[in-house]
Design brief:
Length: 334
Amino acid sequence: MATKNKQVLLANRPQGWVQESDFQLVETDVAALRDGEVLVKNLYLSLDPYMRGRMNEGKSYAASSKLQEVMVGGTVGVIVESKNPNFQVDEHVLGYFGWQEYGISDGKGLQKVSVSQQLPASAYLGVLGMPGLTAWVGLMSIGQPKAGETVVVSAASGAVGSVVGQLAKAHGCHVVGIAGGKAKCDYVVNELGFDACVDYKAGKLVEDLAAATPDGIDVYFENVGGEILEAVLDRLNAHARIPLCGFVSQYNETTPHAVRNFGALLINRVKLQGFIVGEHAELFPQAIKELSELVASGKIKYRETVAEGIESSPKAFIGMLKGENFGKQLVKLA
């Protein structure tokens, strides 16, 4: 009897906020392996803000997800059957199988990972995966922080932002996070070691940011956009750097926030650079080496929000876009 594979397909292209009805849960039979192929049982699925953009049509840095096809996404899993001499049963692999319980591959694009108590499988989708690499590449390559400078990061308790702040601290910077709610700000300061955190939901964003950055801002790692970006622009120092990673506050808006003070970029001779982490693969070995050492030694801490079962993926994804998750949002598949 064939193994059953539950999958989540993109059913509709959202107009504004994503709805659970924009997805469809189906069950299919896993195909028999051909020579050179492996069957991977996915253990965890990564849910990330970039997926919202893939649901739209139109020009972007990557192709849109197609209707009635499996939603895109990173996965970590274990090989349960192999007809490829380069991969053995029970090896753990990082892949890009999307929102489904099983995936078949000819081995291209699969990355073997070493799973241990210090480095569990889920970490390869977060702090040691795409989010961690994004944090390292954006901060170290574009932000280029110097000891004593002030680094500010939005979505500071999230999978990317939390690593950015801890890396900046490790390099001797004064680090200020921006997050939504007292619990997230307390976590960022008390557990992750940030110097301060501004709660943008407290209603005093401009005043609190000014108080937390008395010497201005040298590096701003941008994850959010909107009014937070606007507040930061007024605090930038001359020759500040902005690694532009995302605009999560704007992804579901039909009328994006109009930033009023873009002139600050010219006045302060600011370097603003958007980036896609996959275009910087030459930096990955250095990034993974540093991140692995910091995680294994406990100098970089991380937190995960884990939904259970493939059926929970749409609800968990929408919650992540609304900031309901704490740290990296995952779905446990097995």
